[in-house]
Amino acid sequence: MKRIKLVGLCILVAGAFAAIAGVSTAAAASPEYGVCVSQKKGKYENSGCTKLAAKKGSFEWHAADSCYAMKKGNFTESGCKTVSEKKGKPAHKGTFELAPSPTYTSKSIGSPTLETPGLGSVTCKADTDVGKITGASSDEDQVFFTGCETQGKKCHSIAPGEPAKNEGEIITEHLATSLTEPKAGTVDTKFEDNAGPEHFQAWFECEGPQFETTGFVSGVDSPINVMGTSALTDFAAANGSEQDLETTIFIPEPLGPFASDEITEATTTFAEAIETRS
Fold it and tell me: Three-class SS of residue 146?
């Protein structure tokens, strides 16, 4: 997903998010990603885990990347670290299984923009966000922006971040996300650098001046509590997205930091069906 708050912008692309399909029948204590897997004596009768079984179902809902008990599973212990093997080959005779943690790709709708009053806007033509869910409420990704410029000057990421290969390309640092529930009935995906909000998310140059963006941004996810392979994340502050981004400009002495806002929406496609449950 989905972003240019230059860094924040990257944030927006990523993405980890909800899905599309049937309505879920259970609620989580806190927001989490989940998958529906085939399992004997499950609670559900359908592969979307939306219909509770009258007696014994054939499917069960599990938090992404969680370890659950299952006969003939691939693992021998509750941490899903030790594979069941025989003569060095998988034996599939363990008592635990690991729930899938899907990969995903995201892209912004329109032109992702980083607005910084006093410095202007950095706008990109497109972006690609590639990531993977890493736990019940987390994922990690990296965003690649193309066609980026500000006030007619082309931008590209440079060291100490990950240098771009092409003009107009801004590459974010590896980003970490977490699901939050700012209020009942809503779920946000919060993006920040893997090293924390104090570390820059992107460092880039625009034909002279250099920019650094730090902080975090949260996008409002939809739909929630349904199973599917696609989702939408809205990073516009006016629509409830929580943002705490700051941009510093070096010309060559540093000026700032200045408050910034990420303005965009991002669509996410998951490799397999998943649900963001509140």
Answer: strand
Q: Residue 124 to residues 70, 183, 200, 241, 246: CA-CA distances in angstroms?
A: 47, 32, 19, 20, 18
Name the least confident of 28-32, 44-48, 119-123: 28-32
Q: Among 172, 201, 177, 175, which residue's Cα sits nearest to residue 189?
A: 177
Q: What is the mean predicted confidence (pLDDT) over 114-120?
A: 88
Q: Are 124 and 9 in contact (CB under 8 A)?
A: yes
Is the pLDDT assigned to residue 122 strictly greater than 70? yes
Sign of CA dihedral 36, 24, 183, 259: positive
76 burial (CB, 10 Å; 0-12 / 13-18 / 19+) is middle
d(CA 16, CA 143): 13
58 in the Ramachandran plot: left (φ > 0), alpha (ψ -120 to 50) or beta? alpha
**Domain residue limits, the chain:** 8-21+101-277, 36-98
Strands annotated E in 25-76: 32-44, 52-63, 67-73
Mean pLDDT of 151-165: 94
Tokens 């929630």 locate to 224
- pLDDT for 3: 36
Give residue 24's identity as a one-letter amino acid code: S
pLDDT tens for each residue of 41-89: 899 999 889 899 998 899 999 999 999 999 889 999 999 999 998 888 8
Work out the number of other CB atoms within 10 angstroms of the CB of residue 262.
Answer: 33
Fold of the CATH domain 8-21+101-277: Porin (2.40.160)
CA distance 236 to 220: 9
